[in-house]
Amino acid sequence: MLRFTTAGESHGPALVAILEGMPAGVPLVAAQVDAQLQRRQQGYGRGRRMQIERDAVTFTGGVRAGETTGAPIAMLVHNRDWPNWEDVMDPAPRPEDADGGRRRVLTRVRPGHADLTGLLKYDRRDARDILERASARETTMRVACGAVARAFLAEFGVRIGSHLVQLGGIDAAPPATWPEDLAAAADASPLRTLDPAAEARMINAIDAARRDGDTLGGSCEVVATGLPVGLGSHVSWDRKLDGRIGQAMLSIPAVKGVEIGMGFAAARAAGAAVHDPILPAPGSARTGGVRRESNRAGGLEGGMTTGEPLVVRLAMKPIATLMRPLATVDTATGATASAAAERSDVTAVPAMGVIAEAMLGLVLAHAWLEKFGGDSLDEVRRNHDAYLAHVAGRVGA
User: Fold this and answer.
1) How confident is the model over 134-166, as pLDDT tens digits?
2) Residue 397: inside a domain, yes or no?
3) How far is residue 296 from each of residues 184, 239, 249, measured CA to CA in Å?
4) Within 13 Å of residue 97, how many CA atoms lie on the same side as its CB?
5) Rounded to an integer, what distance in angstroms lies between the CA atom of residue 190 and that of residue 31?
6) What residues does 253 pair with on adjacent strands?
7) For the whole model, what pTM was predicted?
8) I want to staple 45 with a disulfide (CB 3.0 to 4.6 A). Which of 206, 214, 287, 367 is the partner?
9) Which residue would you say has higher pLDDT here, 154 or 97?
10) How many Å apart are CA 198 and CA 336, to the nearest integer?
11) Rounded to a whole number, what is the distance in angstroms from the first to the last CA of the chain?
């Protein structure tokens, strides 16, 4: 089954990832990954770090002659900011370590970050040992792994996109006509929103927050199309696809809420206004010869895909690094202090959508291989095509 792990620190020499379980024969070149990495770096309200880094992947295993080989895929992204932090992040011991003399020691822990809890849990003196790994910079490699998953899913016509639907309390109105390529349409906006009028108000809010030394959160919606009926399962709690999606999304830094379909709004409505009537749709193999009159369930029923578009929404809290810091405790002295203020973004909600696309792609690719199996792309394709041929004729048979 598909699994991945990442390693590296925000200001270390590089970030790395290993993605295991991808079948052989999937067309893949570095430019496909780099395109997703560049999307992650965009968005109005990002900080200076995104002006420094030019994220680009190097394959160090698992890809040859433009195709996956079936072996674990190893990827590396260098941090261009590393030379400015080498003395701070040097893995080797230094003379100044004995008295805590390294530059940028952080003991004025920041409310809302992993600083204090991680420092206590791992028995560290310098919260930099925590924050460097807890940083959202780690998601660079999630996006890299997600790009590989997307390349695999694209071979079957699956498309994943996202758009920003709320920022700083300002809602974006849905478009009258949904774009065929949601990701490309959203990327044309500096905030990745489809509502130009709301975009202008959001930009003003970001500028005001920057002047105030504050930050803003928001929400995005992620949509996957082209999925067949039957990914996931109802039989055990850990096989339910909505549960797996929720875990993946909530693992993204600062994400505090996830909805599928109507989400929390379904709890306020009567059943007739929540559930989707099912109608015949002869010839629609992907949905099993039926269709939903609506898609309030967001493409999932009983922990399984229905074949309708999969719709997931995420809520991201404001970034916890404030340029007008909150009160905290200095862990070195126990005295009250103002929290440390490090270079950060005013908002990262547009980038969060791209990260969510990657995480959704990884969950779906895992579920795809779980359902259809195969050590090569051609074997997976044969299994997939045979399944669709079977379910296309099940209803009314």
Assistant:
1) 999 999 999 999 999 999 999 999 999 999 999
2) no
3) 25, 22, 20
4) 10
5) 22
6) none
7) 0.96
8) 206
9) 154
10) 40
11) 33
Between CA 43 and CA 329 the distance in angstroms is 33
CATH number at residue 179: 3.60.150.10
The structure tokens listed for 132 are 């460097």
The tokens describing 34, both together, are 């780099």
Instruction: From residue 314, give the alpha-carbon distance in Å to each of 165, 207, 232, 355.
Output: 10, 23, 21, 11
Instruction: Convert the pLDDT of each residue in 270-301 to its tens digit.
Output: 999 999 999 999 989 999 999 999 999 999 99
Kindly report the number of other CB atoms within 10 A of residue 124's CB atom.
14
Alpha helices in the chain (DSSP H): 30-40, 49-52, 86-89, 115-121, 128-134, 139-154, 182-187, 196-211, 241-250, 349-372, 377-392
Contact 160, 361 (CB under 8 A): yes
14-20 and 73-78 beta bridge pairing? antiparallel
Q: How many CB atoms lie within 10 A of CB 374?
A: 17
- Determine the angle formed by the axes of helices 30-40 and 139-154, rounding to 10 degrees: 130
Burial 311-345 (b: 16+ CB within 10 A, else e): bbbbbbebbbbbbebeebbebeeeeebebbebebb
Packed helices 30-40 and 349-372: angle between N→C axes, nearest 10 degrees = 140
Q: Which domain holds residue 347?
A: 3-392
269: which residues sit within 8 A by CB, 6+ positions away? 262
List the one residue out of 5, 351, 248 whose CA is nearest residue 145: 5
Cα 1 to Cα 361: distance, rounded to the nearest angstrom = 14
Count of domains forming the chain: 1
**Tell me: the pLDDT tens digits for 46-77?**
776 666 778 999 999 999 999 999 999 999 99
SS3 214: coil
